């Protein structure tokens, strides 16, 4: 994040906050985080271990217990680092290991709250010696624009033909007890055969032809979903329940909240996205912080950097990781309409994504005070969330004295999909005893 970027949107948000007066959110966040206890959670690399495998005979002597709903931690407590070290190397659960990838990430979590908000502080060391804040970049080759780089799992990146360029992410899942088994088995309920980068992936055409996933959601790949939204015991991706039944589950709150802080697509505007998992990984109602900066018909960018504000109209690949250069296009801050006649040179780079805090709205814009700073090899992310967002349709309300189930994940060092590190499910108590207990502020 460039300092100027945050100070502009941060100052605006602060001014709006003071003007509203009813929500002294910024002012009340812990002034001294050193006084708040730190819980270290070991996140580990899960490979392709999914819902189906955990219930199969290959998960020796554990399959029946897992079907009955037994907690992963009742057998695996303290084994996270060991599991991660084995799985990341490759083998039956990882057919395409990423050379040198670490098996575990130590995530430090602190929590505090007042009457209005929950304040979370996360810290973790990155494997790469720079912030992962590049995503979907496009490069001009002298004639046309094309996407450049990608996650380390991509063939062209593995072979060295393209650079690793992908944002870091921190994901938080919340269940308030309404999703059967989430307390014991956490995110493994959402991870299935057939999803992106998992075994048994259907073709794009098969997904597009599916009445719910393809035709209603307009998706062409399979992402997270909950077993209760499927009709068969294996919870197959294509055996979806009728839309009315899924609507009833949503009404009853039987979804998992899933929020993601993103190094490129949300952090530059001081936000995290806000979504939920039910029959698919879905976005809350309204508009989140990011969209595309690409005209798909002409394959040209829609916006470029405003040289009057940031000194350049484009970047070069050599600027990646240079903190004095911008790395994200923000509509209201540093962008102007793309000018095809601006004298583009081979090697010019522009983000393929356009961010906007000003255009974000509704429940999808609830995480409007989330700021990450990368320094000395680690991210520190400060996350303010209203205890009750007022959007019960797609959010979980937190109450002082209450406990919710949570799961965390970090996507570290240019990775996407399953190439992340995850936690077993834990509990978060708002001023009550739990794995992570939030401290009540005066
Ligand atoms: C009743 C005890 C028990 C429960 C509950 C249990 N496991 Fe296991 N798990 C085992 C045992 C035993 C093994 C070792 C099996 C083997 O070596 O093949 C194992 C193996 C694993 C492995 C290692 C696979 C490998 O190839 O290295 C993973 C990952 C795993 N379990 C994840 C989970 C998750 C996630 C859950 C919760 C959804 C869970 N387990 C629940 C007993 C359990």
UniProtKB/TrEMBL annotation:
Q: Which GO terms describe its molecular function?
A: heme binding; metal ion binding
- What InterPro entries would the database entry show? Cyt-c552/DMSO_Rdtase_haem-bd (IPR019020)
Please provide the record's keywords in A-Z order.
Electron transport, Heme, Iron, Metal-binding, Signal, Transport
Top-rank lineage group of the source organism: Bacteria
**Residue ranges constituting the Cytochrome c-552/DMSO reductase-like haem-binding domain according to the UniProt record:** 30-423
Which classification does the entry list for the species? Answer: Bacteria, Pseudomonadati, Pseudomonadota, Betaproteobacteria, Rhodocyclales
Q: Where is the signal peptide?
A: 1-27
What protein name is recorded for this chain? Cytochrome c-552/DMSO reductase-like haem-binding domain-containing protein
């Amino acid at each position: 994040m460039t300092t100027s970027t945050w100070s502009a949107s941060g100052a605006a948000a602060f001014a709006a906050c003071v003007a509203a007066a009813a929500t002294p959110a910024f002012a009340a966040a812990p002034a001294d985080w050193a006084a708040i206890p730190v819980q270290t959670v070991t996140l580990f690399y899960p490979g392709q271990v999914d819902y189906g495998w955990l219930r199969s005979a290959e998960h020796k002597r554990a399959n029946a217990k897992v079907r009955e709903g037994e907690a992963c931690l009742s057998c695996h407590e303290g084994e996270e680092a060991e599991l991660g070290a084995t799985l990341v190397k490759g083998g039956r659960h990882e057919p395409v290991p990423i050379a040198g990838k670490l098996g575990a990430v130590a995530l430090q979590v602190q929590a505090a709250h007042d009457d209005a908000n929950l304040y979370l502080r996360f810290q973790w060391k990155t494997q790469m010696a720079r912030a992962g804040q590049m995503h979907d970049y496009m490069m001009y080759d002298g004639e046309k624009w094309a996407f450049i780089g990608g996650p380390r799992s991509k063939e062209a990146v593995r072979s060295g033909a393209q650079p690793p360029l992908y944002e870091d992410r921190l994901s938080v899942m919340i269940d308030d007890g309404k999703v059967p088994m989430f307390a014991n088995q956490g995110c493994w309920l959402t991870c299935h055969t057939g999803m992106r980068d998992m075994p048994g992936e259907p073709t794009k055409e098969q997904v597009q032809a599916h009445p719910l996933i393809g035709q209603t959601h307009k998706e062409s790949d399979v992402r997270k979903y909950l077993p209760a939204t499927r009709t068969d015991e294996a919870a197959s991706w294509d055996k979806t329940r009728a839309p009315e039944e899924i609507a009833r589950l949503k009404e009853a709150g039987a979804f998992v909240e899933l929020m993601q802080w993103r190094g490129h697509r949300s952090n530059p505007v001081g936000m995290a996205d806000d979504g939920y998992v039910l029959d698919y990984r879905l976005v809350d109602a309204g508009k989140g912080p990011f969209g595309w900066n690409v005209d798909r018909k002409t394959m040209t960018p829609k916006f470029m950097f405003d040289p009057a504000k940031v000194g350049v109209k484009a970047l070069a690949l050599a600027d990646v990781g240079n903190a004095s250069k911008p790395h994200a296009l923000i509509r209201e801050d540093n962008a102007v309409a793309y000018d095809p006649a601006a004298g583009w040179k081979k090697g010019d780079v522009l983000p393929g994504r356009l961010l906007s805090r000003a255009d974000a709205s509704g429940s999808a814009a609830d995480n409007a005070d989330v700021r990450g700073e990368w320094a000395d090899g680690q991210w520190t992310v400060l996350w303010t969330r209203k205890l009750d967002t007022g959007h019960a349709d797609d959010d979980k309300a937190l109450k002082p004295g209450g406990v919710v189930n949570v799961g965390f994940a970090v996507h570290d060092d240019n990775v996407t999909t399953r190439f992340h590190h995850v936690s077993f499910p834990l509990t978060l108590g708002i001023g009550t005893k739990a794995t992570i207990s939030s401290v009540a502020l005066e």
